[in-house]
């Protein structure tokens, strides 16, 4: 992404924002542009999903940040992703994203690595909790103090505004998912969804649940294998 000329990045921002606005509300163009395409990350990769007719129906942006926390170098991954409602949960873009994470982790193999998210929808959190081996917070056990401090430090570092009244694990993100059908992630059947709704009841107002996922090389390889297996079986059944 950083190799694109500024005028091409600007044109990409405008096209991508048109798609984004069909998926999310609450984010003005300038904030989206700076957040996704003109990110200050060390590396940014962008994937756009198209139909056979060339219509843009989804996107995924991956950012890798080099940070120093408590005097130690840390690699932080962040993502923004969205798909039109009829195209959710059926592509393999996440495997390309994980491959980029694995490559960056190999390059920084001495560094600690984490995926930092502020999830604004129960489906996103439930997906992470299902596939990732170490996710904080989670429904099964209290978040260790070191990870709690990491969550707050990263939220402050990325300038995520506290909600009002303040909640230590929830920040104002303002990305609100547009949905035309009721929530299909049943909290009675999916305990991760139930946990998210309890922890972040204001997600419909663009509030995000702070989440950190350990992203060591073995973790990323395991996530990759799990996604490849489940998504591969799903695609085969759909044919």
What's the helix and strand layout?
Layout: H1 6-23, E1 24-25, H2 29-37, E2 43-50, E3 56-69, E4 72-83, H3 93-107, E5 112-119, H4 122-131, E6 135-136, H5 145-157, E7 161-167, E8 170-172, E9 176-177, H6 191-199, E10 207-214, H7 217-238
Parallel strand pairs: 4-5
Antiparallel strand pairs: 1-9, 2-3, 3-4, 5-10, 6-10, 7-8, 8-10
Quickly count the domains: 1
What's the β-strand tally?
10
Any low-confidence stretches, pLDDT <50, length ≥5?
none
Q: What is the count of DSSP helices, taking H or I runs of 4+ residues? A: 7
Report the sheet with the most strands, covering strand number, pairing sense and barrel closure: 8 strands, mixed
Nearest-integer average pLDDT: 90
Q: Residue share in helices?
A: 40-55%
What assembly state would you assign to the polypeptide chains in this entry? Answer: single chain
- What is the general shape? globular
> What would you call the structural class?
alpha+beta
Q: What value does the Rg take, in angstroms? A: 17 Å
Order of helices and strands: HEHEEEHEHEHEEEHEH
Query: What is the straight-line distance between the termini?
Result: 34 Å
The portion of residues forming beta strands comes to 25-35%
């Amino acid at each position: 992404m950083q190799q694109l000329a500024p005028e091409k990045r600007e044109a990409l921002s405008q096209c991508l924002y048109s798609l984004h606005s069909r998926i999310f509300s609450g984010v003005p163009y300038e904030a989206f542009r700076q957040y996704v395409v003109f990110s200050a990350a060390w590396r940014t990769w962008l994937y756009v999903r198209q139909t056979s007719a060339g219509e843009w129906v989804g996107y995924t942006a991956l950012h890798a940040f080099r940070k120093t926390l408590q005097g130690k170098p840390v690699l932080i991954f962040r993502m923004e992703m969205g798909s039109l409602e009829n195209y959710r949960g059926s592509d393999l873009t996440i495997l390309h994203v994980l491959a980029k994470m694995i490559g960056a982790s190999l390059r920084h193999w001495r560094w600690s690595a984490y995926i930092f998210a502020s999830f604004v929808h129960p489906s996103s959190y439930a997906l992470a909790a299902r596939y990732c081996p170490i996710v904080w917070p989670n429904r099964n056990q209290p978040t260790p103090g070191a990870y709690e401090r990491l969550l707050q430090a990263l939220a402050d570092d990325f300038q995520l505004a506290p909600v009002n009244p303040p909640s230590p694990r929830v920040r104002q993100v303002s990305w609100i998912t547009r949905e035309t059908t009721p929530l299909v992630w049943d909290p009675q059947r999916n305990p991760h969804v139930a946990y998210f709704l309890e922890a972040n009841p204001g997600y419909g107002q663009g509030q995000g649940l702070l989440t950190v996922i350990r992203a060591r090389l073995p973790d990323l390889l395991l996530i990759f294998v799990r996604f490849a297996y489940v998504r591969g079986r799903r695609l085969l059944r759909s044919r």
